[in-house]
Specification:
mainly alpha, Serine Threonine Protein Phosphatase 5, Tetratricopeptide repeat, 0% strand, globular
């Protein structure tokens, strides 16, 4: 739902839904999805110019991907850190 909202330009609602999903994944201990959602939040924040928040979210995604030993998922996000 959040991705559809983002595509339609409803960034605030997309962020709210992503944050809800993030809280659920955190509570369930689903670290892989939690990392992916931090990445999604980073993309959303970056798209609307909230660069500092985007960087915090992206750094959290990279850290989680490292903790769960997912280098194939971590490395593209590290490059985003360099590009942003």
């Amino acid at each position: 739902l959040a991705l559809a909202l983002r595509r339609s330009g409803e960034h605030d609602r997309a962020i709210a839904f992503t944050e809800q999903a993030l809280a659920i994944c955190h509570d369930l201990g689903d670290r892989h999805r939690e990392a992916a959602l931090h990445n999604n939040l980073a993309d959303l924040m970056n798209a609307i110019g909230r660069r500092d928040e985007a960087m915090r979210q992206l750094k959290r995604a990279v850290a989680l991907f490292s903790e769960i030993d997912a280098p194939d998922l971590r490395e593209p996000e590290v490059w985003k850190l360099v590009e942003w």
